[in-house]
Amino acid sequence: MINSKPMLVIGTFSFVAICAVLFGFAQTQSGVSPVADTAPKKAEEQFKNIQVLKGIPADQMIPGMQFISTSLGVECEFCHVQGALEKDDKKPKQTARKMIEMMFTINQENFDGHREVTCYSCHRGSTDPVGTPPVMAEDLKPSVGEAKKSEGIRAETNEASGPTGDQLLDKYLKAVGGAAALDKVTSRVMKGTITFGDRDVPIDIFSKDPDKRVSLTHTPDGESVTAFDGHDGWLGVPGRPVREMHGPDIDGAAMDADLHFAAHLKGMFSEVQVRGTEKIGDHDAYFLVGRRGEKTPLRLYFDAQSGLLLRLIRYGETPFGRMPTQIDYADYREVGGVKIPYRWTLARPGGRFTIQLTEVKQNVPVDDAKFAKPPAPPAEADKGSAK
């Protein structure tokens, strides 16, 4: 299980991968470059004592553990022996294996293998699922059906009257300045602060076309780095070896690094469906779901008046369910003919942080060396462990 609270200082597009840095949960690729070893590893090839999760991709293990951690409201040590994660000394680890097998069986035998039931379906942030309906001590909360609708994934709803999905995407592109203005942006350098809890820490963000981005968070303990070079992503914190991103973190990093995101958005989708309107703060917003073939869908909220993007929700696949990431955008300002948000808040089930920019420069020289991936660390002697 993963404790997410100290992770928020790192950057804007990696969350689950940071768990590997803080807890040594993931095994690095033994110093082998991706070019030399392109075959994806299975969980049992990279982690010790894998029993019920044999055959899943190794890079889904950390997101999967994060999903369990969030669903039960616990940390790694609830199931695992600290420093010896492969051991089966703790009863909750044995119970977790049984619960995982039960979940897989329920979905296979009752939902044609579709992942309808997850850890969160029963636990809802508690180690002990509630079996008795509670009395109403306060105003009614949204029903299960409404909650499922809010995911914007499988719920069946009628398209609302109003603009089509393509019209909303076109209006967004026009609102930020248009494709011609975006095409002129080759780099962006940003300064500001990242706020998590009651702490404010300076942050510098460098972006360069095509799809390169690095954020440098200046913590009291040293500089934390989150980077994406257009293909690979990695992160580092003071006193720890550099760790690679995998799976949904790479997908999110690519979106965050795209300087022409508004122009590319329509091309990402195989289908878009408008789902109605919602309130985002004081703004009325149209929201739509964009499907991306084999990738998880995106949920987008556009200001009904300005057409600007107010919220984006993306999902990371895990063996147990989807983990949402919500990004709220605000304080749009024009820089070189293009409107960009000067403030955004990233929230995951385990925490949130806000970045407020104070200075933005575009089309300034940015050395490619800033995005150079550090050398891989030496092979580690021991493997991590999971379920």
Structure write-up:
This protein has 2 domains: 5-132, Photosynthetic Reaction Center, subunit C, domain 2; 165-371, Clam (outer membrane lipoprotein receptor (LolB), chain A). Helices cover 24% and strands 31% of the residues. The chain contains 10 helices and 15 strands. Strand 8 and strand 9 (283-292) form a beta hairpin. The radius of gyration is 21 Å and the shape is globular. The termini are close together.
Explain the layout of strands and helices.
Blueprint: H1 16-23, H2 43-46, E1 47-48, H3 61-72, H4 91-110, H5 119-123, H6 144-151, H7 165-175, H8 179-183, E2 187-196, E3 199-208, E4 212-219, E5 222-228, E6 233-236, E7 243-244, H9 248-257, H10 261-268, E8 271-280, E9 283-292, E10 295-303, E11 309-317, E12 322-335, E13 338-348, E14 351-362, E15 384-385
Overview in brief:
This protein is an alpha+beta fold and 387 residues long. 24% of the residues lie in helices and 31% in strands. The chain folds into 2 domains: 5-132, Orthogonal Bundle (Photosynthetic Reaction Center, subunit C, domain 2), CATH 1.10.468.10; 165-371, outer membrane lipoprotein receptor (LolB), chain A (Clam).
